[in-house]
Design a protein that fits this description.
Radius of gyration: 15 Å
Number of strands: 9
Order of helices and strands: EEEHEEEEEHHHE
Helix content: 10-25%
Largest sheet: 4 strands, antiparallel
Shape: globular
Distance between the termini: 29 Å
Strand content: 15-25%
Strand order of the largest sheet: 4-1-2-9
Number of helices: 4
């Protein structure tokens, strides 16, 4: 399965987005009305930018992961940059709101890529992550989703 996408290329992995509630099996399913840009879809054998990230960036990214469930799939993806049995696994994606009408689409393993492999995401993504209001996102409960631009006609999937 292909997992590599160039940073800031158009997201084409799935047509729809599904936001899941972190405390239940409920979700919002919809065809996005925003542009999705790839960030952090790394693959062994493909070069990627490395370097320092601002203080607090990785922790903020972890905070988003604690409160956001996005496009969770049945299977998992293991980091193919790590040796076999030591490779952590991820399931799902993150959405980070950028400028109006733009969302960054990242795999759940992005924090691992930053902390273990020195991956340096694009500056626009870093700035967007640092701008996330984690308190507001953590306080959101079903059926509210801590993300702008969810269409009004989003289908609510109950359990």
């Amino acid at each position: 399965m292909r997992v590599f996408f160039e940073d800031l290329s158009a997201y084409t992995y799935q047509d729809e987005d599904t936001f899941g509630d972190s405390e239940s099996f409920r979700a919002l399913w919809y065809r996005p009305e925003y542009v999705r840009l790839n960030v952090g879809w790394l693959e062994a054998g493909r070069p990627y930018p490395t370097g320092p990230v601002p203080a607090g960036f990785a922790e903020r990214l972890r905070g988003v992961q604690r409160v956001q469930r996005m496009n969770v799939c049945l299977g998992v993806h293991a980091c193919d940059l790590c040796p076999g049995a030591e490779a952590p696994e991820g399931n799902g994606e993150l959405r980070i709101p950028g400028e109006a009408g733009i969302a960054y689409a990242a795999p759940f393993l992005i924090t691992h890529y930053v902390t273990a492999h020195g991956y340096r995401p694009p500056r626009a993504f870093v700035d967007a992550v640092l701008a996330v209001d984690l308190d507001a996102w953590a306080a959101a409960r079903w059926p509210d989703v801590p993300f702008p631009w969810v269409p009004a006609d989003a289908e609510r999937l109950l359990e």
